[in-house]
Amino acid sequence: MSNSPAFVEAQMLIRKPVQEVFEAFINPELTTQFWFTKSSGRLEEGKTITWEWEMYGVKNNVTVHKIIPNHLIKTEWGDPSSNVDYEFKEMEKGTLVVIKSYGFTQTGEDLLKTINDNTGGFTTVLDGCKAYLEHGINLRLIEDKFPQK
User: Could you count the other beta carbons within 10 Å of the beta carbon of residue 133?
Assistant: First the structure.
């Protein structure tokens, strides 16, 4: 079965230098302030890292296919897995981060749900990253998106 041509794209200008924004996505000490709660290590090309969202009891293995410092992180993760690219572009007022998710194997209603989940999820990640890097605030967006009780 071929992969769907469908894709998801979310973007946000983060008013910080590209080196700082890029580091926030590869360094779990920073990423855990706005996304997952645990990681088995920094993102490094050719490695598989485990990300964990402890409040949901969810883990994902993330395979890092390519890293171009301060420009691009190419990964594959999820169940079923899809490609997720993180692009970083220096702008006049900061860094534009574009997250692209593609290579979905789902079809029909399952594909629509996956696209919806990816769009909302990556938008929330970018919003949380912006709040953390620009203002030092952890908004607890991921934790509060699906409260358990």
Answer: 22
